[in-house]
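Table 4 source record.
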Amino acid sequence: MSFGQAVKSVFRQYATFSGRARRAEYWWFYLFSMLVTIPVQIFFFVMYFAAILPAVGETDASGAITDEGLESINWGLFVVGLIPMLVVGIGLFIPSLAVLVRRLHDTGRSGVWLLIGLVPGASVVLLVLAVLEGEPHDNFYGPDPKAGERYMGPGYGQPQQYAQPQQYAQPGQPIPPPPYAQPPATGFPPPPQGPPSRPPAHPDDPFSAPGR
Protein backbone atom coordinates (compact mmCIF):
# COMPACT_ATOMS: atom_id res chain seq x y z
CA MET A 1 0.00 0.00 0.00
CA SER A 2 1.42 3.35 -1.04
CA PHE A 3 1.22 6.71 0.71
CA GLY A 4 -1.66 7.97 -1.42
CA GLN A 5 -3.60 4.73 -1.16
CA ALA A 6 -3.34 4.77 2.63
CA VAL A 7 -4.56 8.37 2.92
CA LYS A 8 -7.50 7.70 0.59
CA SER A 9 -8.40 4.52 2.48
CA VAL A 10 -8.46 6.31 5.85
CA PHE A 11 -10.57 9.23 4.62
CA ARG A 12 -12.89 6.83 2.82
CA GLN A 13 -13.46 5.17 6.20
CA TYR A 14 -13.55 8.52 8.01
CA ALA A 15 -15.56 7.41 11.04
CA THR A 16 -15.46 3.63 10.58
CA PHE A 17 -14.40 1.94 13.79
CA SER A 18 -15.09 -1.59 12.59
CA GLY A 19 -12.86 -3.79 10.49
CA ARG A 20 -9.08 -3.97 10.35
CA ALA A 21 -6.23 -1.73 9.16
CA ARG A 22 -2.79 -2.94 8.18
CA ARG A 23 0.40 -1.31 9.41
CA ALA A 24 1.10 0.51 6.15
CA GLU A 25 -2.31 2.17 6.23
CA TYR A 26 -1.87 3.40 9.80
CA TRP A 27 1.71 4.64 9.56
CA TRP A 28 1.34 6.32 6.17
CA PHE A 29 -1.64 8.23 7.53
CA TYR A 30 0.34 9.06 10.66
CA LEU A 31 3.05 10.58 8.44
CA PHE A 32 0.40 12.49 6.51
CA SER A 33 -0.99 13.90 9.76
CA MET A 34 2.47 15.09 10.81
CA LEU A 35 3.12 16.70 7.41
CA VAL A 36 -0.15 18.62 7.68
CA THR A 37 -0.07 19.47 11.39
CA ILE A 38 3.50 20.74 11.76
CA PRO A 39 3.21 23.65 9.25
CA VAL A 40 -0.14 24.66 10.77
CA GLN A 41 1.36 24.68 14.26
CA ILE A 42 4.32 26.75 13.09
CA PHE A 43 1.90 29.24 11.52
CA PHE A 44 -0.08 29.42 14.76
CA PHE A 45 2.99 30.18 16.91
CA VAL A 46 4.15 32.85 14.46
CA MET A 47 0.75 34.56 14.65
CA TYR A 48 0.65 34.11 18.43
CA PHE A 49 3.96 35.84 19.05
CA ALA A 50 3.12 38.55 16.54
CA ALA A 51 -0.14 39.15 18.43
CA ILE A 52 1.40 39.45 21.92
CA LEU A 53 4.61 41.19 20.90
CA PRO A 54 3.20 44.71 21.49
CA ALA A 55 2.25 43.71 25.05
CA VAL A 56 5.73 42.47 25.95
CA GLY A 57 7.05 45.98 26.45
CA GLU A 58 4.08 47.00 28.59
CA THR A 59 5.09 45.47 31.91
CA ASP A 60 5.28 46.81 35.42
CA ALA A 61 8.13 46.52 37.92
CA SER A 62 7.22 42.93 38.80
CA GLY A 63 7.29 41.87 35.13
CA ALA A 64 3.51 41.47 34.81
CA ILE A 65 1.72 42.82 31.76
CA THR A 66 -0.23 45.97 32.53
CA ASP A 67 -3.77 46.68 31.50
CA GLU A 68 -2.51 48.90 28.72
CA GLY A 69 -0.38 46.00 27.49
CA LEU A 70 -3.37 43.63 27.40
CA GLU A 71 -5.28 46.15 25.34
CA SER A 72 -2.43 46.33 22.85
CA ILE A 73 -2.59 42.59 22.05
CA ASN A 74 -3.65 42.02 18.46
CA TRP A 75 -6.37 39.45 18.95
CA GLY A 76 -7.07 39.35 15.21
CA LEU A 77 -3.66 37.79 14.51
CA PHE A 78 -4.23 35.31 17.31
CA VAL A 79 -7.56 34.18 15.81
CA VAL A 80 -6.06 33.98 12.32
CA GLY A 81 -3.42 31.58 13.60
CA LEU A 82 -5.83 29.60 15.79
CA ILE A 83 -8.54 28.84 13.21
CA PRO A 84 -6.39 26.71 10.81
CA MET A 85 -4.99 24.69 13.71
CA LEU A 86 -8.48 23.98 15.06
CA VAL A 87 -9.80 23.01 11.62
CA VAL A 88 -6.92 20.61 10.94
CA GLY A 89 -6.99 19.18 14.45
CA ILE A 90 -10.73 18.48 14.37
CA GLY A 91 -10.55 17.17 10.80
CA LEU A 92 -7.81 14.65 11.61
CA PHE A 93 -8.94 13.61 15.08
CA ILE A 94 -11.79 11.26 14.09
CA PRO A 95 -10.03 9.43 11.20
CA SER A 96 -6.86 9.11 13.28
CA LEU A 97 -8.84 7.57 16.12
CA ALA A 98 -10.74 5.26 13.76
CA VAL A 99 -7.65 3.94 11.98
CA LEU A 100 -5.95 3.30 15.33
CA VAL A 101 -8.95 1.24 16.47
CA ARG A 102 -8.84 -0.74 13.23
CA ARG A 103 -5.10 -1.23 13.71
CA LEU A 104 -5.78 -2.71 17.15
CA HIS A 105 -8.40 -4.96 15.57
CA ASP A 106 -5.79 -6.18 13.10
CA THR A 107 -3.69 -7.44 16.01
CA GLY A 108 -6.72 -9.16 17.54
CA ARG A 109 -7.33 -6.55 20.26
CA SER A 110 -10.39 -4.53 21.12
CA GLY A 111 -10.60 -0.77 20.70
CA VAL A 112 -10.99 -0.55 24.47
CA TRP A 113 -7.19 -0.58 24.56
CA LEU A 114 -7.39 3.11 23.61
CA LEU A 115 -8.29 3.86 27.21
CA ILE A 116 -4.74 2.98 28.22
CA GLY A 117 -3.69 6.22 26.56
CA LEU A 118 -5.41 8.09 29.41
CA VAL A 119 -2.77 6.77 31.80
CA PRO A 120 0.24 9.13 31.90
CA GLY A 121 3.19 7.55 30.09
CA ALA A 122 1.23 4.43 29.07
CA SER A 123 0.55 5.66 25.56
CA VAL A 124 3.82 4.00 24.52
CA VAL A 125 1.91 0.70 24.78
CA LEU A 126 -0.37 1.85 21.95
CA LEU A 127 2.70 2.72 19.92
CA VAL A 128 4.07 -0.79 20.37
CA LEU A 129 0.72 -2.37 19.48
CA ALA A 130 0.52 -0.27 16.32
CA VAL A 131 3.91 -1.64 15.23
CA LEU A 132 2.97 -5.30 15.70
CA GLU A 133 2.19 -7.50 12.71
CA GLY A 134 -1.48 -8.24 12.18
CA GLU A 135 -2.93 -11.70 12.59
CA PRO A 136 -2.29 -13.68 9.37
CA HIS A 137 -5.86 -14.97 9.18
CA ASP A 138 -9.43 -13.80 9.58
CA ASN A 139 -10.28 -12.86 13.15
CA PHE A 140 -13.30 -11.67 15.11
CA TYR A 141 -13.05 -8.15 13.62
CA GLY A 142 -12.87 -9.03 9.94
CA PRO A 143 -10.85 -10.60 7.14
CA ASP A 144 -7.10 -10.27 6.87
CA PRO A 145 -6.35 -7.04 4.92
CA LYS A 146 -3.10 -8.59 3.63
CA ALA A 147 -4.60 -11.91 2.53
CA GLY A 148 -3.99 -11.06 -1.11
CA GLU A 149 -0.26 -10.57 -0.47
CA ARG A 150 0.60 -13.22 2.09
CA TYR A 151 0.10 -16.14 -0.31
CA MET A 152 1.60 -14.66 -3.44
CA GLY A 153 4.71 -16.66 -4.25
CA PRO A 154 7.38 -15.81 -6.85
CA GLY A 155 5.81 -15.19 -10.22
CA TYR A 156 2.32 -14.98 -8.79
CA GLY A 157 -0.11 -13.52 -11.25
CA GLN A 158 2.14 -14.16 -14.27
CA PRO A 159 0.63 -16.18 -17.13
CA GLN A 160 1.79 -19.76 -17.06
CA GLN A 161 3.72 -21.01 -20.06
CA TYR A 162 2.36 -24.25 -21.49
CA ALA A 163 3.88 -26.56 -24.07
CA GLN A 164 3.02 -25.79 -27.66
CA PRO A 165 0.62 -28.25 -29.35
CA GLN A 166 2.12 -30.74 -31.76
CA GLN A 167 2.03 -29.67 -35.37
CA TYR A 168 0.26 -32.22 -37.61
CA ALA A 169 0.44 -32.40 -41.38
CA GLN A 170 -2.39 -30.95 -43.39
CA PRO A 171 -4.45 -33.27 -45.65
CA GLY A 172 -2.52 -34.12 -48.80
CA GLN A 173 0.87 -33.39 -47.24
CA PRO A 174 3.41 -36.05 -46.15
CA ILE A 175 3.57 -36.69 -42.43
CA PRO A 176 7.00 -35.73 -41.09
CA PRO A 177 8.78 -38.64 -39.39
CA PRO A 178 8.99 -38.51 -35.60
CA PRO A 179 12.30 -37.49 -34.08
CA TYR A 180 13.04 -40.99 -32.79
CA ALA A 181 12.87 -42.45 -36.34
CA GLN A 182 16.09 -40.73 -37.31
CA PRO A 183 19.25 -42.92 -37.04
CA PRO A 184 21.47 -41.88 -34.17
CA ALA A 185 24.68 -40.13 -35.05
CA THR A 186 27.61 -42.46 -34.37
CA GLY A 187 30.45 -40.53 -35.95
CA PHE A 188 31.04 -43.19 -38.66
CA PRO A 189 30.28 -42.74 -42.39
CA PRO A 190 27.02 -44.30 -43.57
CA PRO A 191 27.24 -47.75 -45.20
CA PRO A 192 27.42 -47.82 -49.05
CA GLN A 193 24.13 -48.13 -50.85
CA GLY A 194 23.75 -51.02 -53.43
CA PRO A 195 26.37 -53.61 -54.56
CA PRO A 196 30.04 -52.64 -54.38
CA SER A 197 31.42 -51.22 -57.62
CA ARG A 198 34.37 -53.05 -59.33
CA PRO A 199 37.46 -51.06 -60.26
CA PRO A 200 38.02 -50.47 -64.00
CA ALA A 201 40.05 -53.12 -65.92
CA HIS A 202 43.69 -52.50 -66.43
CA PRO A 203 44.84 -53.00 -70.08
CA ASP A 204 48.06 -54.82 -69.04
CA ASP A 205 46.41 -57.18 -66.53
CA PRO A 206 44.89 -60.26 -68.26
CA PHE A 207 42.94 -61.19 -65.12
CA SER A 208 41.12 -57.87 -65.07
CA ALA A 209 39.48 -58.40 -68.43
CA PRO A 210 35.72 -58.31 -68.43
CA GLY A 211 34.14 -61.60 -67.48
CA ARG A 212 37.04 -62.73 -65.28
